[in-house]
Amino acid sequence: MEAFPIPADTYKLGFIGAGKMAESIARGVVRSGILPASRIITAAHSNPLRREAFESFGVRVLSKNDDVLRLPTAVWYRVVEESDVIVFSVKPQVAKDAVSKLKPLLSKKKLLVSVAAGIKLKDLEEWAGSSRFIRVMPNTLRLHFLSLIVMSLGGTATEEDGKLIAKLFGSVGKIWQADEKYFDAVTGLSGSGPAYIYLAIEALADGGVAAGLPRELALGLASQTVLGAASMAAKTGKHPGQLKDDVTSPGGTTIAGIHELEKGGLRGLLMNAVVAAAKRGRELS
């Protein structure tokens, strides 16, 4: 396969779609110093707030008035023409239209990245023709630069392409590479998982209130407890069962609480939630 290496020191990054997902990725890239804002470009057709958001940290934003054809697609052409790496950050229902309309410009010299949920690599590659595609799936924590990101390389993407995208998206969180066949399960766990944890935080806070704590204090303690426990699991690499045992004294308060959770089937419920979300992800894709 012929290689088309991206120029490491001079490449430009373009976004098709200027929503909050694209903004958070661009902000992370600039904030981390991986790319200067001057080498990032996007287009905002009609929403002045989106233009202001990107321009606030130095990213160049085209509008339809920047192009003589005055069509949204024409502005997208400009973004593609001026970029080496193009991120398709569009809604799934418009992904096919966006990629197909830009197909004449999507040569193998362009590295394409999709963050459109549920759109498979085989479809992206078919719509784009001979282009190099990488599929990336961040979760909703991306806005606070704590995202969990999984990527899968298309058939013509190279190992060097993967390293470049890992570095770019690593600026907004921790990134893993995995076969695309796991993406529905990833969606069920890390994509939908934050909602499960928010429910747990709310329930813990409610328990604190029931035990006599003021609401604000209970919510703060619940949130920080979850944050601390997650940080400990991530940093130590210990099995969560071991960490649980480390804070569970014989006949103490913690084992009394765990006993209640086990009687209620907490583990089974969380497992079922992940499996149900993964199943729904397969149905939607």
TrEMBL record:
Subcellular localization, as worded in the UniProt entry: Cytoplasm
Pathway this chain belongs to: Amino-acid biosynthesis; L-proline biosynthesis; L-proline from L-glutamate 5-semialdehyde: step 1/1
Q: Which residues bind NADP(+)?
A: I16, G17, A18, G19, K20, M21
| Keyword Hydrolase (UniProt) | no
Pyrroline-5-carboxylate reductase dimerisation domain location is: 180-284
- What name does the UniProt record give this protein? Pyrroline-5-carboxylate reductase
Locate the Pyrroline-5-carboxylate reductase catalytic N-terminal domain: which residues? 12-118
Concerning InterPro entries, the annotation shows: 6-PGluconate_DH-like_C_sf, NAD(P)-bd_dom_sf, P5C_Rdtase_cat_N, P5CR-like_CS, P5CR_dimer, Pyrroline-COOH_reductase
Q: Pfam families, per this entry?
A: F420_oxidored, P5CR_dimer
For the keyword ATP-binding, the answer is: no
| Keyword terms of this UniProt record | Amino-acid biosynthesis, Cytoplasm, NADP, Oxidoreductase, Proline biosynthesis
Annotated GO molecular function terms are: pyrroline-5-carboxylate reductase activity
